[in-house]
Every structure is written in C-alpha cells, then in structure tokens.
Write a structure and sequence with these properties.
- The structure is a homodimer.
- Chain A is an alpha/beta fold.
- The first copy, chain A, has one domain: Rossmann fold (3-Layer(aba) Sandwich).
- Helices cover 44% and strands 19% of the residues of chain A.
- Chain A has 4 helices and 4 strands, in the order βαβαβαβα.
- A 4-stranded parallel beta sheet of chain A has the order 2-1-3-4, sandwiched between helices.
- Chain A starts with a strand and ends with a helix.
- Chains A and B meet through strand 1, helix 1, strand 3 and helix 4 of A and strand 1, helix 1, strand 3 and helix 4 of B.
Chain lengths: 125, 125
C-alpha cells in the first residue's frame, strides 16, 4: 500500500488564506516521508478534493487519508465532506479513502493552541 | 494589569462545533492561571465578542488579548474582527485590547497538526 494524505481546508476568497495550509503540508511531507502529501480546499482556493485525489492516484497512491484542517466538526465535515468523498469513491473504486477527525479533536493540537494563546497574551510571541 | 484572553472562533449552526473551543479554554485556563479565559464566536454560537469582553471587564480585567481560533487569516480576521474590536474599544476606552494572529501562524500548532495527520494516516490515532 502506498500512503497519501490530503490536507483538506475550508479556503477563502483571500489567496493568503492558503499559506498556513501549504506550510503545514511542507512540515508533514518532511516528517512523514513515506506519504505523498497534497492540499485541497472546499471553497475558493484550488484544488478541490476530487482533483487532489486524482493527483494522488496518478502517483500510484492507493491508501488515502483526508485530514480536515478545520477547528471543529460542523456542517462542512458532517455533510459536505462525506458527500464529496462518496462521489470520489465511485470514480476511484480501488482506492482506500478514510476520513480523519477535525484538528480540534487532537489534545496535542489543543495544547499547542493553548500555549500559543498564553504566549500571545503575555506579549512573548 | 489583570489579563484576560478571549478565544474567538467562527462558530457554526451545529452546537457541537463549540466543544473543542470550550475544551481549549479549559486547557488554557489550567495552564495560564493568571489569566481569565473566555470563549466568543463570530456566528451562530453564543456569546458574541462584545459580550465576552463585557464579562472580562466585569471581572476587573483590563488587559485583553483576542486570540482567533482560526486556521488562517481571511476576511473574517482582516475585516470583521478589526471592525468589531474598533466598536468595542469605543465603549471600553480604558481596556487594552490586542489581537493575536491566527493559529496557523504558530509553528508549534502546525507541528502538532502535522503529527496528528501523520498518525491518522498510519491508523495510529
């Protein structure tokens, strides 16, 4: 099995919005050298999830994890994402595609966010 | 100076959406015991930022940091938040209110997110 990870974020009309997501992809690619890492966006910014999965499939990836770069799970992750993934599974029947929870479900992410907030408040950022 | 931190998140029609933000507030309050910590939301979930600042002011806080629990900076943080804060400053002239950057600006947060993504892909979450 060849692993791939899609960092799936909301997107924004502001093109700068995608920068931290692309930076995250760079950090992840350095850290997890066995995985092929791509970004995808729900709205406004390219590429959409379908295209990101196509890219991974072209690279021979057959084990894909979609990781939502979202704070929490609302309508986008509970309704939109499963609908998009269901459609992708129909066109990529041989791929394993699993969905990770939102970033806010990770205690380590929340700990890092708390540290950032505390430092910002103390003016030590 | 008495410090306060507002964890300011987007919000969602889904009430569960606020849970990680409230969990983050709990972690932060335990970690930064000198600070009074509250949550606020831009849309759908209570309280709005104005009310969160009122709460801190009633507690005697005079040094407030608004920390956006957002992945990245788009229109909400570049336009909406400064406009809301400008209005709050008019009614709370004695308060110091500063704005922190989005969570995605923190390397430590991105590192924790990368670790989470890698573990999720390896099925080790």
């Amino acid at each position: 099995m060849k692993r791939g990870i899609v960092l799936f974020a909301h997107g924004s009309r502001d093109p700068e919005w995608g920068e931290p997501v692309r930076k995250l992809a760079g950090i992840l690619a350095e850290r997890d050298t066995d995985a092929s890492v791509v970004t995808a966006f729900l709205e406004h910014l390219p590429p959409p999830l379908e295209q990101a999965v196509d890219t991974l499939a072209e690279r021979g990836v057959n084990d894909i994890t979609v990781v939502p770069v979202f704070i929490a799970q609302g309508g986008h992750l509970k309704q939109d994402l499963p609908r998009i993934v269901a459609a992708i599974r129909k066109t990529h029947a041989k791929l394993s595609i699993k969905l990770a929870p939102a970033m806010g479900e990770s205690s380590a992410v929340l700990e890092a966010m708390a540290e950032f907030a505390s430092l910002a408040s103390r003016g030590a950022r």
